[in-house]
Design brief:
This protein is α/β, with parallel strands linked by helices and about 325 residues long. It has 2 domains: about 5-120, Rossmann fold (3-Layer(aba) Sandwich); about 125-280, Dihydrodipicolinate Reductase, domain 2, CATH 3.30.360.10. It has helices at about 40-50, 55-65, 80-85, 100-115, 130-140, 170, 175, 180-190, 285-295, 305-320; strands at about 5, 30, 50-55, 70, 90-95, 120, 150-155, 195-200, 215-220, 225-235, 245-250, 255-260, 265, 275, 325. It has a 9-stranded mixed sheet. Strands 3-2-1-4-5-6 form a 6-stranded parallel sheet, sandwiched between helices. The chain is globular and about 60 Å long.
Length: about 325
């Protein structure tokens, strides 16, 4: 497999395949920055070893001709690079957001309509984690009854952020970059579509953060009458032991399933709490992404799921900007 990498700011989970004997990855790899001010791309490329570095992504696509492209651009540019690769018939694995504007989303949709075999996968890593997969299976098995109330959390340390984070036009906003994980986990675990959303966000304590938020919230109406609440923030203390605090709680008439600290706990009708984290087989995210690229059986990642979530996230950001309910879907 020939892999081309674009950008120095994403997770690039396909890197996991480079040290996995189950995969044969052609060398040299190819790497290109996502923009002239993508100053981390070269450093990441050097760390991969035996890499051909291109000055721009278009040249890399046309000269190296990768069989798959991993995109981790300056966030608002992911969609442009994804579209460029898809237009050339190259499968894409991209960090979120795959679309930071409605125009980017429509461009991606148009490509997929014209090329139905297009592959566009979003790197929502919760989908490959044992804890979230166990939570979904518990819901599927009826352990809590129909999911009625879901609460998702993403909390990060602020740490050191590049200057372009100050500009939401480049950053894309906290709803698309951070809250997106929690929103996707609600959709993934409950398997309920979001019918409408309302939200709020702001920057209260970091004026140096410019036009970007330091917290966002979203409340969503789920199909069937349930409700989901999601919040994301940069308020995790700098001295906290871990960078992030990811949580999901889903409640139904028969019980509650909760993911916290990498563990999935279930309280069922018998009242006993049990750790079900290892109840579902799981494998590394790079393996799941490659399986989806190859068209093997997987219900974790797909082009349809990527486009659906991209639309929902844009609706959620609009709802927070307007502080008003926004209808989702068609």
């Amino acid at each position: 497999m020939r892999i081309g990498f674009v950008g120095g700011f994403g997770h690039h989970y396909l890197r996991g395949a480079l040290s996995d004997d189950a995969y044969s990855i052609e060398r040299p790899l190819a790497f290109a920055p996502s923009a002239s001010h993508d100053d981390r791309a070269a450093a990441i490329a050097r760390g991969l070893g035996n890499v051909t570095f291109f000055d721009d992504a278009t040249t890399m696509l046309d000269q190296y001709k990768p069989e798959v492209v991993s995109i981790g651009a300056i966030y608002a540019l992911n969609g442009n690079h994804a579209a460029a690769a898809l237009e050339r018939g190259i499968p894409v694995v991209s960090d979120k957001p795959v679309a930071a504007t409605w125009e980017q989303l429509e461009r991606l949709r148009a490509i997929v309509r014209a090329k139905p075999q297009s592959v566009l996968l979003t790197e929502f890593d919760f989908r490959a984690r044992a804890s979230f997969r166990a939570a979904r299976q518990a819901v599927r098995d009826g352990k809590i009854g129909p999911p009625v109330l879901a609460t998702g959390q993403k909390s990060y340390r602020f740490g050191s952020r590049p200057d372009w984070y100050r500009d939401r036009a480049q950053y894309g906003g906290m709803m698309l970059w951070i809250a997106s994980h929690a929103i996707d986990s609600v959709r993934f675990v409950t398997e309920k579509r979001v019918m409408k959303v309302v939200g709020r966000g702001g920057n209260v304590s970091r004026p140096q953060f410019g036009t970007s938020e330091e917290y966002v919230t979203a409340m969503m109406e789920l199909e069937g009458g349930g409700t989901a609440l999601v919040h994301a923030d940069f308020y995790r203390p700098e001295k906290a032991r871990t960078h992030g605090d990811d949580r999901l709680r889903v409640a139904g008439p028969k019980g509650v399933v909760e993911v916290r600290g990498g563990v999935c706990m279930l309280i069922g009708e018998d009242g006993d709490e049990q750790d079900i984290t290892e109840s579902v087989p799981s494998r590394p995210i790079h393996a799941e992404l490659i399986a989806a690229i190859r068209g093997e059986t997987t219900d974790l990642f797909s082009t349809a799921a990527s486009l659906e979530m991209a639309e929902l996230l844009l609706h959620a950001r609009d709802a927070a900007d307007k502080e008003a309910w926004v209808q989702c879907g068609s």
